[in-house]
Amino acid sequence: MAVLAGVFLDREAACGLPALAGDANRGPKSFSAQNPFRSRAPVSATLDVLTIGNAIVDVIARADEAFLAAQGMPKGSMTLIDEAKAEAIYAAMGAGTEISGGSAANTAVGAATLGARTAFIGKVREDKLGQSFAHDIRAAKVAYATPLASDGPTTARCLILVTPDGERTMNTYLGAAQNLTTADLDAELVKGAAITYLEGYLWDPPPAKEAFLAAAGIAHGAGREVALTLSDSFCVDRYRAEFLELMRKNVVDLVFCNEAELKSLYETADVDSALIQLRRDVASAVVTRSERGALFVAKDAVVTAPAYPVDRVVDTTGAGDLFAAGFLAGRTRGLDPATSLRLGALSASEVISHVGARPERNLLDLARETGLLA
Amino acid sequence: MAVLAGVFLDREAACGLPALAGDANRGPKSFSAQNPFRSRAPVSATLDVLTIGNAIVDVIARADEAFLAAQGMPKGSMTLIDEAKAEAIYAAMGAGTEISGGSAANTAVGAATLGARTAFIGKVREDKLGQSFAHDIRAAKVAYATPLASDGPTTARCLILVTPDGERTMNTYLGAAQNLTTADLDAELVKGAAITYLEGYLWDPPPAKEAFLAAAGIAHGAGREVALTLSDSFCVDRYRAEFLELMRKNVVDLVFCNEAELKSLYETADVDSALIQLRRDVASAVVTRSERGALFVAKDAVVTAPAYPVDRVVDTTGAGDLFAAGFLAGRTRGLDPATSLRLGALSASEVISHVGARPERNLLDLARETGLLA
Q1: Which ipTM score applies to this complex?
Q2: In this structure, which topology does domain A11-53+103-120+183-369 adopt according to CATH?
């Protein structure tokens, strides 16, 4: 498949959003020129992408719509649950496949398999699931050195019900993940990372919120970029005002969201008006639109890219995480936004073709096969 | 897809093995008429299939041929390892997907999803993996009541390396599974099961061998059938004489094997001569031949069935287990051997299309979609 090199102006661009075609393929150096933290030249990054998030093991089972209804689970959502509720759902649900997960951790793994130098910070306990989590992320060549907790809550798990249409409904017991604190931040790691990527879900456990803000401060102090994924429309609903403040105060430079999250952020059903507000509020953003592709927006640019076709959507878990992985890997390689979007779309297409939120194929090989990377 | 209703005489049949076309579709009642334990009419079965085997959780990771070579693993084999070796391999291997497994347990799950009334007997410890195993098999509607061990070795695990061609190479730490004893046998369960299915792997842990023989005795005492899978060519190599004795002394009535196991059993590269010996040694057998289909042989019959086409072989783990599941489910439904073989082939085709040895789809729905079952 040929590299999608051009700039595509779509209906968003046509409705009042000026797109500077000459600028869209400039590559990362100038792409966030509006960002005050980009004003001095940073020392060379020792890491491409550092992600920080809730460290979670997924337990994935198939379920039908009736099961979701009987359990009162809003389809497609992520619901926070306590350990007792986790036990009750587990007892009721079908046979589970256990695969390491966690949104930002999935993104780190995806970026690593695309050749990016990556690290992850997140908390597990030193129990069976925690050991699996640590093994798996390290096996994917992601640097992971957050100390495992020797006591306290057990390792976080996410009970994921996948309906026949491939859609996932998640129930998360945060457990040990909620004890991530500023003390777990490795400042040198943050300073050395070209992009520090934070998940909106970190807003759920209060101490993690502080770690999030501290990491953003350290990254900006070192002249690096800070990215945020809005994670989930329900998450946006919980923290709308805070997320908007992070954007408006330039605590984050690059936002990842899907259309549902975007609509939730601006409490509107109108994507066009939400996009106009998004471009005012943040230096740059990637908006994913499932099978309709994705777009990158900055103050002066709108770039779109189509989705990759998928034979059968098996499980959408991790689609957004892997899209971000592809985009970030492309961006830190110095690729233009259009190609980075395509790399995101390709990565997402791989992960929705099988069960689990971590890629089964080497994404670098896949990108080379499709001609996206040389 | 149409039901394969006819009898196909293949080259085995043509080379000295008489096939009685009129007999091949007789259904189970007369199919093991040669077996002395079928001489009196059994009381109605309360269970279709009881399987007994090593209760194992699989940890599945992708690996390349170079990894197998570096680790000294014979590709396609199952090697028994101790816990220290399991830790060493785990540390070296890639990120793992954990899914309940165990050969006979997979067969029970497969038969259950085809609508058979099934139960499983096998030993785990009451640890995280053991609890997952118990949850998963019960979630698949397989009756499972073997007491979980409260101490002793940890739950068995099988480290499975899947190469790009989909072939699996297994390393099994038997742990708690090796403590299955005659005391764990529920005699009423065995008496009530139309077919008791035992895995050759049970010959590895010595106490389980006794439980195996006790179960066969109870089953035959109640006028039931006893089936054995030869499990693995290396397993056959370890226990050739004993397996042959089980067959020749009518301790087992129905043998499942693939061509590699068959050749190993008779220490020959010539499948035809091995088949002649197989028909002399056991009342009936199912021989699977990967993409070349499978055949059912009895003293007076040879029936063949083609394989189901598969778009992409992702992971062959469980192919034999699920073939057996389909055949047993068909047989206990009273279907003829040809249709039972087809049900086996269909079940195997589903399980090799994804990672893991348990079906992801409802096999009954699948069999109905293909027209194999009404």
Answers
A1: 0.76
A2: UDP-N-acetylmuramoyl-L-alanine:D-glutamate ligase (3.40.1190)
